[in-house]
Design goal:
This protein is 37% helix and 14% strand. With 126 residues, it is α+β, with helices and mostly antiparallel strands. A hairpin with a 3-residue loop joins β1 and β2.
């Protein structure tokens, strides 16, 4: 699990800007460390913005966080899980993609009654 400690907004913005050309379809795929930094920092920001442990958000292979207030999950598969790929996550986090569109297109798997993250998105705009 990634840490939920506070994220420096400047560090988050710089990490997302480093991959924004790729997100916009105008640049090559970023190097793995750049992509990992953008995903991890944006997930940590989500966990800070929506504190709690009722939803697990997974963006393999880079990170997973627990967030959103509600019943705490302790063992086994959580009742509320969101999973997606790094590109989709970053498109959601930057407002390039709407939550409902991503879910309807099958780009996000969201299970459980608390798994709707639309209230906390976007995380950063670039």
């Amino acid at each position: 699990m990634a840490s939920s400690r506070s994220v420096d907004p400047g560090e988050l913005r710089a990490a997302v800007v480093a991959v924004s050309a790729w997100l916009g379809g105008e640049g090559p795929e970023p190097a793995r460390p750049e992509l990992a930094a953008a995903v991890r920092l944006s997930l940590r920001t989500l966990a800070s913005d929506a504190p709690g442990r009722s939803v697990e958000v997974r963006v393999p292979p880079f990170a997973a966080v627990q967030c959103v207030e509600g019943p705490r999950h302790t063992r086994g598969t959580p009742a509320n899980v969101v999973e997606t790929d790094p590109r989709t996550w970053l498109e959601l986090a930057t407002g390039r993609l709407q939550w409902t569109d991503a879910v309807e297109a099958g780009r996000v798997t969201a299970s459980g009654t608390r798994a709707d993250l639309s209230h906390w998105l976007p995380i950063v705009r670039v």
